[in-house]
Specification:
Layout lengths: L7 E6 L2 E6 L4 H7 L6 E2 L6 E2 L12 E4 L2 E4 L9 E4 L10 H16 L13 E12 L3 H12 L4 E5 L12 E3 L1 E6 L2 E5 L3 E12 L3 E3 L12 E3 H8 L8 E5 L5 H9 L4 E7 L9 E3 L2 E7 L3 E8 L2 E6 L2 E4 L2 E3 L9 E4 L4 E4 L6 E3 L2 E3 L5 H19 L14
Parallel strand pairs: 1-7, 8-9, 8-13, 9-10, 13-27, 15-22, 16-17, 16-22, 17-18
Antiparallel strand pairs: 1-2, 3-4, 5-6, 5-7, 11-12, 12-13, 14-23, 19-20, 20-21, 24-25, 26-27
Helix pairs in contact: 3-6
Length: about 400
Amino acid sequence: MNESVRKEIHFKFEGRRFVAREGDTVAEALIRNGIKVFSLSNRYIRPRGYFCGDGTCNQCMMNIDGNNALACRTIIKENMNINRNVPKIKKLNSLSFLIHIPFIIYFMKNKLLKNKKIISRAIETNFSTDILIIGSGDSGISAFNTLKKLGINTILVSDFFPKDFNYSDYTINAKVFLIDDMVAYSSNSENLIKIKAKKIILATGSKNTDVVFENNDLPGIMTFQAFRRIILKGIIPGKEAVIIGSSGEEEKIANYIENHGIEIKGIVSKIPKVSKYKYFYYYEVEKAYGYSSIKKLKIKKGIFERILKCDLVILSDKTKNIDLIFNSKINYLKDKNSFFPVRNEDLSISDNIYYCSGFSENESIIEGQKAAMNALKSLSGGENENNVQIDGY
């Protein structure tokens, strides 16, 4: 949606008024206003910022209207009151204390240690459907479109939808956290949502993985998934980027980032490739520098060291998202550097649950179609009532 169409939302951050756009998460609203530090770590009083974008890492836990909540999972509302979470300071050694004096003074000045107790209750909402699809990647949308064209009672639930996706009454914007006895439990910022289904298709795709190096928690370091979520809202989180990873998609990611006006300072990867971008093959990321956000990156290969100036670091390594898979065998695919569930020929991983995910766009689309038709066939007692042939299946 055009940014000028989405109405302005006013909110307070540490006593100051800011403006966001309707539909922004708290994290997006803060980054849109140039705010990168969301909280301080409990032990070392280190700044924390936006990292995963999907509520997995808990780095963006903030005080939102008096409650502890994830900034990347909470939708901004008019007159919302937001504060950083700051640990109670008990003992600091002299050096640590001196280093953190600016932050301590700032937070104390803004009364961030004040206790607020507000009790909130989730509203429970219930749905039922023949087929539930979880995930809005290429596989999930392919399965959803296949079944909707056939008029099958289908619900698609996801915490993130592509920019050009046409929403309908059959889509739910929420994160599924549990599947039990064919009931999917999900939530958004306000509601607990229960969806009862006869068949479930898991199309949860991939998730980015961490890279271990010193200071890898600085604000400005984030997964590509997190970057993509905010860039689709028209929010540009930096000017100079370094990409780290060996997924094989680094050049594609670099093109995507560059097309949004961000300069690519280099790609640190173990996969040699001829490219217009500067590749640093077999370099190890040793340390990130900065205080409130990333300023530069130190990489090393043997005796050779390089310093890359940047205000944005994108992590591109990923593995298949198998968080919702239970009671199913999992294999490790060495050539894909990813875990993958063991499936039957019809793509099922257990009774009434199917898993579809490819390692390319075309493969993912075909997987979604196959899962949809197999779930439909099982739903109708082994017969395809619609007698429809799907391309590639």
